[in-house]
């Protein structure tokens, strides 16, 4: 990697995730490389995305839209386009709650005969996006979760919660997730991007609905496991609503339970989340990874990553 950087070749980086977590990593990564691909989960079934998915039988566009917005530049044009993509129509009418970017993406898919990658590439060119956005699968997916505590009268009983929106907000403890269909086709372009990458970045994001699902698409999971690229896992700055107070080490354990063949090279954890967790380094080593502790949380104390701090951590690790 050092030789490549010295020759002026920035690393090819593939980032996985969905929603705000992926947007954070992309905002950081576009500051250190111009060879960036986002591979995005396609299981969202709530809000505007769920409505368009049901009405048009298309991939849910919301997380893809957020990734494209995160890849817009920092100049006035880039900021304007990002705001336009994210703008939602007000009110309770037929357009109420829809994001402009969702309608744009869904409309292009209809115009281009349902080719999701061609539509996303066209939006990226329109925005002058600093990277490429790809769906992880060619078909819309449903997330199912095994949970305990859903029924207060039977707190140890295992129940099933279906749908990303329901899994994300369940008050029960999520033990495991799976995809329906169980063997979905991976996006061919996504698999090729993994094979061509120098670095893969998993996380941050909602653990069960944004991070783990990529490892449940068999062909994509094999590509991640078999790649010659180095693999970084970016931990959340604290447990989220889905993991409900789980330690940082427990997050790694959950990842390993869903993808037992996965090995990592680096685990990035914010110092505040790693503090008082004596098992984190042991779990990281069990996955083959070096644990890197860094101050990557936002300075205002909110549970999110600071893009500049995260970019600095990525640059140090990648030797950029």
TrEMBL record:
Q: Which GO terms describe its molecular function?
A: LPPG:FO 2-phospho-L-lactate transferase activity
| Keywords (A to Z) from UniProt | Cytoplasm
A GO biological process of this protein is: regulation of cell shape
Where does this polypeptide localize? Answer: Cytoplasm
Gene name in the database record: yvcK
Q: Which SUPFAM superfamilies match?
A: CofD-like (SSF142338)
Protein name per Swiss-Prot or TrEMBL: Putative gluconeogenesis factor
The protein's matches in NCBIfam families, at most eight in alphabetical order, are given as: CofD_related
Highest classification ranks of the organism = Bacteria, Bacillati, Actinomycetota, Actinomycetes, Propionibacteriales
Tell me its family.
Belongs to the gluconeogenesis factor family.
């Amino acid at each position: 990697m050092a030789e490549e950087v010295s020759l002026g070749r920035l690393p090819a980086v593939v980032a996985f995730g969905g929603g705000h977590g992926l947007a954070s990593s992309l905002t950081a990564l576009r500051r250190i490389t111009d060879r960036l691909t986002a591979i995005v989960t396609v299981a969202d079934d709530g809000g505007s995305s769920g409505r368009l998915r049901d009405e048009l039988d298309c991939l849910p566009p919301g997380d893809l839209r957020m990734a494209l917005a995160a890849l817009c530049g920092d100049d006035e044009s880039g900021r304007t386009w990002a705001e336009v993509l994210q703008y939602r129509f007000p009110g309770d009418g037929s357009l109420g709650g829809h994001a402009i970017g969702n309608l744009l993406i869904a409309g292009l898919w209809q115009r281009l005969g349902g080719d999701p990658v061609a539509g996303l590439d066209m939006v990226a060119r329109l925005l002058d996006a600093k990277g490429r956005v790809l769906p992880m699968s060619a078909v819309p997916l449903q997330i199912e979760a095994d949970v305990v505590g859903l029924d207060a009268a039977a707190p140890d009983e295992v129940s099933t919660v279906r749908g990303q929106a329901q899994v994300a907000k369940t008050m029960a403890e999520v033990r495991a997730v799976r995809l329906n269909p169980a063997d979905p086709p991976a996006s061919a372009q996504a698999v090729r991007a993994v094979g061509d990458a120098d670095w893969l970045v998993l996380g941050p994001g909602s653990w069960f609905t944004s991070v783990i699902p990529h490892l449940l698409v068999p062909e994509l999971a094999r590509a991640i496991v078999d790649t010659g690229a180095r693999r970084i896992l970016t931990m959340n700055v604290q447990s989220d609503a889905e993991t409900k107070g789980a330690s940082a080490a427990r997050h790694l354990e959950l990842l390993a339970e869903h993808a037992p063949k996965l090995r990592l090279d680096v685990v990035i954890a914010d110092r505040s989340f790693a503090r008082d967790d004596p098992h984190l380094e042991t779990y990281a080593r069990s996955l083959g990874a070096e644990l890197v502790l860094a101050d990557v949380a936002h300075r205002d104390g909110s549970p999110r990553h600071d893009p500049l701090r995260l970019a600095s951590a990525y640059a140090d690790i990648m030797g950029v």
